[in-house]
Write a structure and sequence with these properties.
The complex is a heterodimer of chains A (138) and B (289). Chain A is of the alpha+beta class and 138 residues long. Helix content of chain A is 34%, strand content 43%. Chain B is built from six helices and six strands. The chains are: A alpha+beta (138), B alpha/beta (289). Strand 5 of chain A pairs parallel with strand 6 of chain B.
Chain lengths: 138, 289
């Protein structure tokens, strides 16, 4: 029986790699079934289930929260996302990152640095004291 | 001669410090192993995505995505990955030196510089640098950074690049050479440099079926590729942090041990001197009677 090689990977690790008789995936335009010698295809994935039918007839399920799918005649690659992605969610994350930068800049030379400087000073004083004691001991 | 008791207290306090540094060394060692595993786990994704990109650029040589077009560098962006915590030797300092050197070089060529910072050490350091704008930051990712946490920070740079406000994007992080050595590294993220690896293998003309359009797909895949590169940098930096901390704590433990030895010697001498003195006093006293 013809088989097709399947790789399912996410940025944080490999999820599945092996041979399959048939693969089902939630493509952007609807669920697709991929048999060996499928035409080359590239599509995005919707959140859903990727089903892999092994040559032995077993089925394995993998949940993906979106991503991309590449099909070559003997190769299926699922690039799974690690999180739900949507334009506005990404936008919000970007906004937050910007805000954090602004806040960090606002703090220029105020309390946080003051506290750091104090710690630094305390450390220096303690070191000096320790040195003095050592010198006395000698 | 100082009191015998004083020295004893000193030795006890050094021993306490030594215990802490020893514990930190062991914790860092075990975390380093896990971080290394995670570092390895990120590789398949980057490889697969590079393969897809390679196929794409072959199948579709006419369409040029903005991420792949080289422009004159008038403005340069840096994504700088540092640690959140200290006590890891010169790791961050070396990274800052490399980053500053690269920033100065671009500034000499008349480019303006903007920064995205990952890790609180970098935020603290680059606050003082007035001629480079900090656009976005993220701190406290912990020992297991998640790819999803980095999306926002990376997107800020990508958006600027798309708008043409930034013409080059670099990522700066420590490269894990081995446990004993970590090397700061400046890599170009944008424009994407496509390797000519599988050139020749795919000479035939063919094209994908695209669902939806090719440009949308390329956009999404390139974005994920860049995010995965930054994520890889972040994970590698964690491994470096742990390795550097392990080494730093080991030398701190050794130093404490040396100090304790020296103090022990002084302590023994002082103790002996006190006993001798007492003895001679008793003998002297007895002789006087």
């Amino acid at each position: 029986m013809a088989t097709i090689h399947v790789d399912i990977v996410s940025a944080e690790g490999e999820i599945f790699s092996g041979e399959a008789a048939m693969v089902f995936a939630p493509a952007a335009m609807g669920e697709i079934g991929i048999a060996p010698r499928h035409a080359p295809l590239l599509t995005t994935l919707k959140p859903g289930e990727v089903r892999v039918q092994t040559p032995g007839g077993e089925e394995q399920f993998f949940y993906v929260s979106g991503g991309a799918l590449e099909i070559q005649p003997h190769l299926v690659t699922v690039l799974a996302d690690t999180a739900l992605r949507a334009k506005d969610i990404d936008e919000a994350a970007a906004m937050q990152a910007k805000q954090r930068a602004e806040e960090a800049l606002k703090d220029r030379g105020d309390q946080i640095e003051m506290a750091e400087a104090q710690i630094e000073l305390a450390r220096a004083v303690a070191q000096l004291k320790a040195l003095e004691k050592l010198r006395k001991i000698r | 001669m100082p009191g015998v008791k004083e020295i004893r207290v000193k030795i006890a306090s050094f021993k306490g410090t030594q215990k802490i540094t020893k514990a930190m060394e062991m914790v860092a060692a075990s975390k380093m192993r896990k971080a290394q595993e995670r570092m390895r786990a990120t590789r398949p994704y980057a490889e697969k995505i590079r393969r897809v990109l390679g196929h794409l650029s072959h199948a579709n040589p006419d369409y040029k995505h903005p991420f792949m077009v080289e422009r004159e560098a008038k403005s340069v962006g840096f994504i700088i990955i540092t640690t959140d915590r200290g006590l890891c030797g010169g790791l961050n300092v070396n990274l800052f030196k490399a980053a500053i050197a690269s920033i100065r070089e671009w500034q000499k060529q008349g480019a303006s510089v903007s920064l995205c910072l990952i890790g609180s050490k970098g935020v603290q350091f680059f606050k003082r640098l007035s001629d480079a704008k900090t656009l976005a930051t993220i701190t406290h990712l912990g020992d297991r950074p998640r790819a999803a946490d980095l999306i926002g920070t990376v997107k800020v740079m990508l958006d600027l690049y798309k708008e043409g406000k930034v013409d080059r994007v670099f990522v700066v992080n420590n490269e894990f050479v081995n446990t004993m050595s970590q090397k700061p590294e400046v890599r170009q993220l944008l424009p994407v440099i496509t390797s000519a690896e599988d050139e020749g293998k795919l000479q035939k003309m063919w094209d994908y079926i695209y669902e939806p359009s090719a440009s949308d797909l390329l956009d999404g895949i390139l974005m994920r590729y860049i995010e995965s590169q930054v994520y890889q940098g972040a994970v590698e930096n964690v491994a470096c942090e742990m390795a550097a901390r392990m080494v730093a704590m080991k030398s701190a433990t050794d130093n404490a041990g040396k100090l304790i030895e020296e103090l022990q010697l002084i302590y023994n001498k002082a103790r002996q001197a006190a006993i001798t003195k007492e003895l001679s006093e008793i003998v002297g006293g007895a002789a006087a009677v």
